[in-house]
Amino acid sequence: MPxxxxxxxxxxxxLDEHFLPFDAATALLHExxxxxxxxxxxxxxxxxEVLQPRLTAWHGDPAATYxxxxxxxxxxxxxxxxxxxxGQVETATGTAFNSVLLNLYRYGQDSMGWHADDEPELGxxxxxxxxxxxxxxxxxxxxxxARETPHAPVSLDLPSxxxxxxxxxxxxxWLHAVPKTARPTDARLNLTFRLIVNAM
Length: 200
Ligand SMILES: O=C(O)CCC(=O)C(=O)O
Ligand SMILES: [Fe+2]
Hints:
The protein has helices spanning 22-35, 80-93, 170-173; strands at residues 4-5, 12-16, 42-45, 48-51, 55-60, 66-68, 71-73, 99-105, 112-115, 128-134, 137-143, 154-158, 163-167, 174-178, 188-194.
């Protein structure tokens, strides 16, 4: 299935709802749920330490380090399953990636707040390739500045096996989020492949 460009101003967002066959996506969900060393990280929110409302893991090349709160962090090594996925995603996007951030949304109350993936480590026009496995969750996009980018917020339902790619000016002009849902919801696992450009 091909990636299709969404018609959004000041953005380049592509979606393939059927990047992986449904059964392969389900098998991969269960394998990764069980084999990844999931952690619930603390973040500072308005000066308070709180736990992130999801589990995370970070894998990549040893050189793909990240500076965070004055620390130089190194990713976990690629597992065979993650290495294989990296190759598939690189072929589909024509882009090289050296790390992947994994998010496990255990149920509907797990979420990701509004943000852009615009850390300096990702360069000026980052390519983020986001693979979803498991329960369908709503992915929201909205302009950072409504005058500069006049467009209503966008909602995309990301089914199991879908690949979403954000590139070009997207992180500069748009924010994205995965809101909580009150509906009973099974686990969703999301992998965002990234290229950390200071990794030389
Ligand atoms: O779970 C998703 O679809 C989004 C994840 C995300 O935005 C991120 O990891 O930066
Ligand atoms: Fe993000």
